[in-house]
Prior knowledge:
Elements: E1 4-8, E2 13-17, E3 19-24, E4 31-36, E5 42-44, H1 47-52, E6 56-60, E7 64-68, E8 73-76, E9 84-88, E10 96-100, E11 106-111, E12 127-129
Amino acid sequence: MRLLFFVCSHRECVITAIQDYAGRCHCGAVRFTVRTGLDAMGDCNCSRCRRLGWVMQSVPAADFALHTGEDNLTLYRFNTEKIDHLFCRTCGIESFARGNDGQGNDLVMLNVACLEGAPPVDRNAIRHWDGANF
Length: 134
């Protein structure tokens, strides 16, 4: 069975199927795959995410697999230390972060720009999370 999601903006709607994406940091030392429909992309207004400007997609940890680069990741935590921000030591890219939804469910927050073949992002159509007050 193939699941489909509608991703809409005020201009258009596109159908997004759940599929497997390959992802990586800039240098390729960190590589992963993820299963997602890219149906809940968003940005965050916390002090860190606001400065980076990245668009994220949150997925259950079970839908994410890190294949290479675990030993090449550097951990950064700040404020309430609820999220593990993981950066490639070689190129400095944060291709994903790990955390939970506050109810005990482990999540991975993907940097959508690190996914191979992901569709272009309409920033007017994404969700906006209040990470400043998380």
